[in-house]
């Protein structure tokens, strides 16, 4: 926290002040037909009293540091603890709009998003504040400004950097696992985003992959729903998010195949089955001949094979590790074919790369024939 003294004309932020403002926000949000004057008054009250911001200028983000962030966050969480997660989720979401996003204040929004929301999410995770978490994800996804993915990414990065700096990734994963019981939407959103982050996913502890494997096998429908929730299926970004998640999980499987990590192999085996279950659930909501279904299957197959091929070329040998990786990949293809994941969906499949491995491998030979037929 930066030491800064607010202007003498600005009231000092206190726990009671925040609670009082939140109470007024709640009463305002419960009105069916809110008065414009009340809305204007509320914007002014929240902006001036709560955040000590009066001017829209470049120093606005710095001005946020004047407030005691922890007092604010503690008060918000204590206030939201009184709500029922399911019954009051819409009210919570509406209150988020009023508290964090005063009308026509883009700079203020950016400052709040940058400074306050990640801290709120981090604290909510620590305290397992279900009402906040349940309401927060749909609110973020709905997106004020149309960039929900970047907001979620920012919060994820804040959470990740905090736990990485503290060297507590296993603890973070444990919190996600606990949160899955009370707030699966939030938990299932954070894990894919965490895995999608290039700078983080290679550092993931085995516990994170175990968690992903458990969720994908035990409740693939919830994971699929969350991925569909994050971005609408009609949005190409949704396809990209799904492909990135599947791609990175698959690549992690291959990385472990190409290593001698005996401890990870049971986890990777379960993770592969989970990947297939996820693809099958996602495919259920997509027309059989849809380009989206073809894209998911062919991209997954192509990317995985290319990763194996890159490794094979680097060692210039068809060694035991490559054989193991190809064995596992062929098993996924075989199960996928049997379950309808790939049939008629691999028109763009890179058969040249595939043939590099197929000759002399009975299962791959059989799969290649099926794909050609």
Automatic annotation (TrEMBL):
Please give the superkingdom of this protein's source. Answer: Eukaryota
Recorded hits in InterPro entries, A to Z, give: INTS15
| PANTHER family associated with the record | INTEGRATOR COMPLEX SUBUNIT 15
- The name this protein carries in UniProt is Uncharacterized protein
